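Hey, resending since the last one bounced:
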Amino acid sequence: MANKGPAYGLSREVQSKIDKKYDPELEERLVDWIVAQCEPGVGRPEPGKTGFQNWLKDGCVLCELINSLCGANKLVKTIKTSGMAFKQMEQISMFLKAAESYGVTKTDMFQTVDLFEGKDLAAVQRTLMALGSLAVTKDDGNYKGDPNWFHKKAQENRRDFSEEQLSEGRNVIGLQMGTNKGASQAGMTGYGRPRQIINNP
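The C-alpha cells again:
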C-alpha cells in the first residue's frame, strides 16, 4: 500500500464531509455488541475512530462476529491473524461475502478500502448496524446482547384472500379511480370558439 500525503482542496473537503458522518456514540454501542457477541476474547479498541479502525482492520474480529451469528454453520471457515496487508484485506472481503450470504443487502455494504485505509468508517458502521438489525430480526437464538441496540427490520405480512373476497373487490370502484358524480357539461363552450369581448359603455 502506497503512503499517502495529506489531501488538499476538493478531496480534503469531501473527506472531511465523510468523516463528519462517523458517530462516536454508535461506535460505543457497536463495540459493546461485538464484545458481547464474540465473547471478551476479541478485546476492546481504544476509544476513537483510529482505535476502532485498527481493531477491525485485519478482518479477524469481523469474521468472528459473522461466525458467531451463524451458530454451528460457520460462514468463514478459517480465520488467521496476519500482518500482511493483502491477507488482511482478504479477510475483510471474506466477511463481506459472508455478511451478504447472511442477508445484508449490497447497498448496506462498505468497500474493503473504506475500512482498511480508513476512507469511510461511517459506511463500516452502517454495515454493522444492518447486520445487527438483521440478527435481531431473525431471532434464531444466535444474537447476544441487548435487543434494543438495533431496530427490527420490517417483515412480510402476507394476506390470503378467498376467491369470493377477490371477486367482491372487483365490483367496487375505489375512490382512487376518481368519481363522476355531479359532473356535467353545463357551461362548457365548443372547442375553437373565440372568446367574446363585449365592450359595454
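The chain has a mean pLDDT of 76.

Sorry for the duplicate.
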